[in-house]
Amino acid sequence: MIGYLKGTLVGKRPPWLTLDVGGVGYEIEAPMSTFYQLPEIGAAVKLVTHLHVREDAHVLYGFSTEAERALFRSLLKVSGVGARIALGILSGMSTAGFYRCMREKDVASLTRVPGVGRKTAERVLLEMGDRLPAAIGEATAVNGADAEAEARGALLALGYKPAEIARMLENLNPARSTTEELIREALRQAHTA
């Protein structure tokens, strides 16, 4: 099993990216939530991974956070949900958003994800419902990481460089802040510095 890869980002064309690790180029499929967190081509990056073995292929999936990988693996255990749908869900909503859907039994939000019909959404809610207490515990532990990851993505979209974003967020506490609060405070600090 390959737990993570750390190397140089040499290509990104959603949903694929290429990571050079010691002279070996790994092709990795990733959700859009991970793509939003990627630095520029040529920069160092670390991704947690999941190797999915099928009869006809071995596919390496990469994620920016442990929470994304844990959710991906949980989704793969749902009957009728394959890697494509699991990636679609991760691309369509944050892990915190998914856990909110689970708590609220929000079929409508899940069906807005491309490739997820009503029956699939209901199956996901039903089959993952018995794992929800563990998922809520994981979500509580990773909400800070999700908020920080979402804030990083938003700041990247606003045109800030990864190094600037790291400085903007370094003194903030993501475990006690929402994404919006992190963005607001990071922007306030950037403008007062």
Can I get a quick summary?
It contains 9 helices and 5 strands.
Descriptive account of the structure:
By secondary structure, the protein is of the alpha+beta class. It has a domain at 143-192: Ubiquitin-associated (UBA) domain (Helicase, Ruva Protein, domain 3). It is built from 9 helices and 5 strands; from the N terminus they run βββαββαααααααα. It has helices at 32-35, 66-76, 83-92, 95-104, 107-111, 118-129, 132-157, 162-169, 179-192, and strands at residues 4-13, 16-21, 24-29, 44-53, 58-63. It has a 5-stranded antiparallel β-sheet. Helix 4 crosses helix 7 (132-157). The longest helix has 26 residues, at 132-157. The chain starts with a strand and ends with a helix. Mean pLDDT is 83; it is low at 135-142.
Describe the secondary-structure layout:
Elements: E1 4-13, E2 16-21, E3 24-29, H1 32-35, E4 44-53, E5 58-63, H2 66-76, H3 83-92, H4 95-104, H5 107-111, H6 118-129, H7 132-157, H8 162-169, H9 179-192
Antiparallel strand pairs: 1-2, 1-4, 2-3, 4-5
Helix pairs in contact: 2-3, 4-7, 7-8, 7-9
Number of helices: 9
Enumerate the spans where pLDDT stays under 50 for 5 or more consecutive residues. 135-142
- Average pLDDT confidence is 83
Second CATH tier, the architecture of the domain at 143-192: Orthogonal Bundle
The SS-based structural class is alpha+beta
Could you tell me the number of beta strands? 5
**What is the highest CATH level, the class of the domain at 143-192?**
Mainly Alpha
| CATH domain topology of the domain at 143-192 | Helicase, Ruva Protein, domain 3
Instruction: Outline the biggest β-sheet.
Output: 5 strands, antiparallel
